[in-house]
Amino acid sequence: MALKLPYDLEEEILARVPWKYLATLRCVCKLWNSLILEERLNKKNLSFHMHSYSGEHRFILTDHGGPKISAVGIEEQQNNVDDPPSLIVEDFTLRKARTCSPISVYRAVHCDGLLLCVMENQLLVWNPLLKETTWIKCGSDFHQRDDAYSLGYLSHCDFRILRFRCASNSRNRPSRVEVCEVASKTWKVIDNISFDWFLSVPLSILSLRGTPYCIGLREDHTAFVQSYDFYKESFQPIDDLPFSYDELNPIALEIYKGDRLSVLEQCHKTRKICIWVKHWLMLTSWTKLLVVDIPEFPLLYPRPTLLSTNYYFDKNDKLVITYKHFGMKGLSIIRVVNDKEFQVIKANVSEIRLPFLCSYVPSLVRLPGFWKQDTSRIRWRKRRFN
Predict the structure, then answer these.
(1) In principle, which of 94, 108, 198, 365 could form an S-S bond with 103, CB 3.0–4.6 Å?
(2) pLDDT over 70 for what percent of the chain?
(3) How far apart are CA 118 and CA 163, in angstroms?
């Protein structure tokens, strides 16, 4: 006789299961399928595993207008954490629904397990884990250097796309801010926003707890962190960067342990790397987290360039960072072992020559329009084994 557990207890147990196993447990029964896809359980799951998801971290590579997308990550050795990790590469080719022809992706940005893929006249919001997609039409005046995109939300049932262009841009086009409601696929032009700043190049933009953040530059070339508030429909400056901006130094903005902003700077002369962190909500100053001072460390990317760098800290608090050597295909991933040693893992993604990167952590967050319980996989599984 099967043991019937209380509903709340089943939910609590499933919330503690890592997401990669939850995805397969959807086929057990309709109740579990419904539970696993609920927003409440997803939030619990994210909170339980927030600090352990670094082992599932991936770097998303797009081929600057090509059809190929690759998810690249590393897997640490179980016996000795100082041994070189192995490389994990998963390739995707996005195709149009009706014609099945490949789609050219210029850029990808990440928000809570969802990817926003930018094309010339349309956008794709995509959960690679659940294989859910939503297509959104947009204007065809995209320009890789001037326009910025971010995916955020008011709640996990109300995702928004931010698209904006600062007044200072390479083609002297007027500034513009647009927000799209993903559920209804409707765009709204946000008026009365004046820009006294412009975007840093390469672009460094992310979404933390539904709020877009980016690095902005003022006319005097001081750098600061800028956010966009979907409620107030306005940009909100957060804080100046904790260092003097130098356009030759690689910089990057990332999320640290799920609830803090992190910024990286590398000196182009000494190759020294400094990383600071700041809580997204607390009114605290930047705290220096890590200094990597290894003279043999490579320059993360050459300047001037549109290439960016991404990084995270693995479960052993080792820095993992992307490195692009100019003129070579693909990229390399560097793992800093200690204050004197680092490992280089080459990601030979042969078809990708000029990668545009974003960080990605899989999740079970659902797209708007997919919240209705999907039992198709359960029915297919039953037909297969009956």
Answers:
(1) 94
(2) 75
(3) 10
